[in-house]
Amino acid sequence: MSDADLHDFPSLFSLKGKVAVVTGGSRGLGLSAASALLQAGASKVFITSRKAKACEEAVAKLNSLPNLQPGAKAISVPADSATIEGIKSLLEQVKKHTDHVDILLANAGATWGEAFDKHSDAAFAKVMDLNVKSVFNTIREFAPLLEKRGTIEDPSRVLITASVAGIGIGTLGKQGTFGYSASKAAVAHLGRNLAIELGPRHVTVNSIAPGWFPTKMSSGLLKMGGGVEAIAKENPLRKLGKPDDIAGIVVFLCSRAGAHVNAETIAIDGGAVWARGELQSKL
Ligand SMILES: NC(=O)c1ccc[n+]([C@@H]2O[C@H](COP(=O)([O-])OP(=O)(O)OC[C@H]3O[C@@H](n4cnc5c(N)ncnc54)[C@H](OP(=O)(O)O)[C@@H]3O)[C@@H](O)[C@H]2O)c1
Q: Which CATH class is domain 14-281?
């Protein structure tokens, strides 16, 4: 085979027949990712979040997409990822429909904004529990299903939604996200450890680190920071993230094209995390 002879290029970005679970899939980045997985050919995408109604509404939207593979479907499996009981219930619900999982998006997360002097033990614990401990528990509980079909050529995939708040400095001051920023740095490093542990079991683990995307979670902080337009102007690309930006990276990492990427944290923020120097140079 010459260097020009790629192996089956037309299928390089295809997710045909893949089975995926998306935590926090009922809205925001998780819903965009789920939509991309289905449109790239996935056969089953399980949507989970705490509210059953929200999961059902998301599944209805996904199942009415015009360009799905025949028989492909999104399935609602509500559960609270913050508790081990919730994660075990999620696993049992998924097992009723499939004996394996190819793709796990550990995306559910929470944030908390409060000044340093008032930032409480409970607030810190809440974000660390959901954003770090629950991600570990979810990956551990799903590992047997992920290992079922993973191979050297096409490993199963875990994607963790971290944040650029865990790479640069997050929000400080009145709405300080101290616990959140620490949780996102922690979960990306957890991902690197799991990538090396699970690689030999044919499961890759990578993290995506979004910058600002307008969603329910970010809306309050975006408003307080001067609004979407003002914050977009500060970005090196002069825009915030949009659903396509999540879709592209998720499909790449979950497809054969991303099969040799492991233990990485990929920022999707237009370069904003490094832009402080650019802004300061204008002062
Ligand atoms: N938007 C941004 O600018 C941005 C930037 C960087 C990173 N992120 C990260 O991206 C991920 C998704 O955030 P988003 O912006 O898409 O927020 P979002 O629109 O508020 O969505 C959060 C999702 O998580 C679910 N969820 C929350 N707590 C849960 C729990 N205990 N168990 C199960 N599901 C739960 C929510 O549904 P229910 O309420 O029904 O549970 C919802 O589906 C998070 O990890 C967040 O930290 C977001």
A: alpha beta
